[in-house]
């Protein structure tokens, strides 16, 4: 019954909105950013090169379908990309990019501690993410998404952030 | 208006669209593909137009909204939800005794604040029998709360029933965010002892759960005269939440709660035999179980669906009354955006059935003793972004039907103008109703029985016992509020924001009571009865506003201040049977004005020092004078994951009163809220 209802609605919707949306939702856009950042960051040569490029999500996953959707269609740095979700800091293992969505400072701290001094590009969105040692922080500015870069933190972990990314950062 | 028509078509013809389902599923739109090909330079220029998976930013909402965040909650020093709500601008919170609170907004408050909707994860905890919230039965662990959204005023059409002067929406954390272990214990002087244990884990790659147990005990307080108030409170509860976020955009959530709470009370009890009145000390046992399931599906960047259902059983037992209540509620919501992104529609359907069975006693009865009440609701709302301007217009209406009140329409129109990203003006006009409760309609409550007859001595009936009985009105109509609101928000500069809201609420058909002609009753024994009829004869208006400011003078220092004002002008119109016995102003125990100032200070990396000063004007209806109180909290991060908080409450004076008996409800005495302190140790680990 539930299934029928959902199908009916889906059908109805497709008739109603039979075109591609022209606007991007917040996390759709953030997912695109996340993939794009990897083009402007150099990981140290001794960083474990997996068969895949791993994007980790610590805590709640706000991306819905978007990240996996994009990842499935793309290679990053010549290898296929993979999304992993970590429910707790102790689960966090080797990844290249780690997105931290937790709004709570304490958990954010615990998560950042788990990857401190390892070559992991940490990306977050909470107000104090940068202060807690996060590398890239998304900032909503009006209707647009901008980001701040903490290149010191990146350097400590052995990552090199290209000047182009720094130039586009809000805090350039 | 083309889209509006299409929406109507969709609703009416959805059954016929079954044929197109193949097309609907096959047409997997892939906007991500184009977006990911953009360069970083282009990405920073893309506009975000959909926040459908996230609530609106409070700054851009055309309503008086306030959000308590996880951080606000952690640093509040509160041990339960009512005490936490003291920090919300515009809510007037008074402690009635150790286990009862009065919480209201915009001029109405009381033990039964019947115009305020309270929801926990979408489950209404508004008791339809008493029309109000029993705060002791909704003691959610504060550690589990993601945020508390409070809307003052009638809110938008999307909210549930009886959201007249406000909505308190408690949203708990998703199970992903409460992984690992948590143990917290609180011990205090005058303050409660609370122990909470929580475990979170995962059952699959995308399936997470948490489960908790919590025990609270609160000692009895003292009355104004210094006597024990007989209001001890013991509460034991547990619950779980399970979240499954599938990669296809579907998320499933299950949540269950069970509680057993024992709140002591002492009250004057009416007996059907001489001496007729006695004082009884006993307890009100309340227990309940609820189970909620929710299915949410993201259908792409601009539409989502939500289907939610819950069942809730509760049992209240006291010597004078007992009640079993079963509620089943189903709710469906669909949100989508038009192709151009200018319209955002939300529509929904809901149905609730509450069945109760009561154990009547001589003094307190509901007639009939068992009843089932149904409530059907539907709503539609269109949020329109007006072309080439920063104005958004929201048109919406609820259409509902209830067993007690029949059909009702609750329309609202809202507009917000954001001339820049740092400034917003908003306004709203709405009509909302408070539906009848079982009490309004069916109660028979003997509030007094004595040998003192109002008849002149010598008259033949003067020797009979004399009873005063509140009698419900089966024709009681829904209370109506018509409201006009205005608001302004401004980020003066990055670290200084102010917000002001004004309201004028006109009321008709508010509940009141009047004296009916005397009756001679013979069963179970002969007596003269003065019926007190419940009617809809109160009318008038409440006007006021709230002003608040937040300042971050330094990165480690945050100040927040709020001033709230609500002026009541209520009167009684044409009582039908006789004289009104109610002071029209006295029906509600909200102060006319109240204020708070909070400071939050980070001392280094490991310490926090937070203070809050609260002031409330006097409330004549409950004979309470104005008071000022100061709360302080020292937080220490001992090691990673271990936190100690020392909290002092009401530090300025040894004690003050906040509430007293009002109307016929004499189930408590005025207590002294005394200075108190507690320490809370919280450990989080993996």
Topology:
The complex is a heterodimer of chains A (172) and B (686).
Chain A: H1 2-16, E1 24-25, H2 26-37, E2 41-42, E3 52-58, H3 66-71, E4 75-76, E5 79-86, E6 97-100, H4 105-115, E7 121-124, E8 136-141, E9 144-149, H5 151-156, E10 160-161, H6 163-168
Parallel strand pairs in A: 3-5, 3-6, 6-7, 7-8
Antiparallel strand pairs in A: 2-10, 4-5, 8-9
Chain B: H1 2-13, H2 21-26, H3 31-36, H4 40-43, E1 48-50, E2 64-68, H5 70-74, H6 81-84, E3 91-97, E4 100-105, E5 116-120, E6 123-124, E7 145-152, E8 166-172, E9 180-189, E10 193-204, E11 207-218, E12 222-223, E13 233-245, E14 250-270, E15 277-298, E16 303-318, E17 321-337, E18 343-359, E19 364-366, E20 370-385, E21 391-402, E22 406-420, E23 423-434, H7 438-442, E24 443-450, E25 466-471, E26 479-493, E27 496-515, E28 519-521, E29 527-554, E30 557-572, E31 593-603, E32 607-616, E33 627-639, E34 642-649, E35 655-656, E36 671-674, E37 676-685
